[in-house]
Design a protein that fits this description.
Layout lengths: L10 H20 L20 E3 L5 H5 L6 E7 L13 H20 L4 E4 L27 H17 L4 E6 L4 H18 L2 E4 H10 L6 H8 L3 H5 L2
Length: 233
């Protein structure tokens, strides 16, 4: 069973501690964003044939894949208000681009592996507008924490029950409960089915939140000295 998640801290305070590392990741990723979809041709060469769209594969083709050398990439791209100028799909595009570039690099480093790209799931918990006390502000279409976690568990479990051993979660949203949902889902599926399901981008954010790479000097370099005031957080 899952541990109970207590909301002992206000959402405003939680968002304040989480938004900075997400901005760094967002800015860094957008610096090289390609059109979301199958990974684009990169500096290392052509799009790897190792990247396979799940929706284009037949059942026979899927069944022929090596269960131990196939990575299912489960991407979540939430729809969230991002102020008056950015599209509400900013995190969606960010997650898809992160996935694409990651797969290009992994395919080059591990040519014996195949990477199955699941369609992007347009779901997420919360939004930046929560910090302003406007949970129903136009542009954010979120689901409950429990719903998001259940979706990740169900999809991961389906993959695991088919015998595939490696599952990556890719997302690009900073709400703490959003990440907790994926971390708990990954742990549950991994332990129940003895597979390796990991919230990859959650690992990056954990390092940032711990002060690994997202100190104020980095934020200042990206967003200017008064980024907190300008951003409203």
């Amino acid at each position: 069973s899952f541990a109970n998640v207590r909301r002992t801290t206000s959402k405003r305070a939680i968002m304040q501690t989480a938004i900075a590392p997400t901005i760094v990741l967002f800015v860094t990723v957008l610096g090289g964003c390609a059109r979301p979809g199958v990974p684009q041709e990169g500096a290392q060469g052509r799009v790897p044939s190792a990247a396979l769209r799940l929706e284009e594969l037949s059942q026979t083709r899927l069944d022929a894949l090596d269960r131990t050398k196939t990575v299912f990439v489960l991407t979540f791209g939430n729809i969230e208000e991002h102020g008056p100028y950015l599209p509400v799909g900013s995190d969606y595009f960010c997650a898809a681009s992160t996935r694409d570039r990651l797969v290009i690099r992994l395919a080059a480093a591990h040519p014996d592996y195949r990477f199955v790209l699941m369609p992007v799931v347009p779901l997420g918990e919360g939004g930046a507008n929560d910090a302003a006390g406007q949970p129903d502000h136009i542009g954010t279409y979120a689901v409950r924490f429990e719903t998001l976690r259940s979706v990740a568990v169900d999809l991961g479990s389906s993959i695991a029950r088919n015998g595939f051993q490696n599952i990556f979660i890719i997302e690009c949203h900073g709400a703490p409960l959003h990440n907790v949902a994926f971390n708990q889902a990954a742990r549950f599926v991994s332990e129940r089915y003895q597979v390796r399901m990991v919230n990859v981008t959650g690992l990056i954010k954990a390092k940032m939140a711990a002060g690994g790479v997202a100190g104020d000097d980095i934020m200042d370099a990206y967003l200017g000295k008064n980024w907190r005031q300008h951003g409203g957080f």
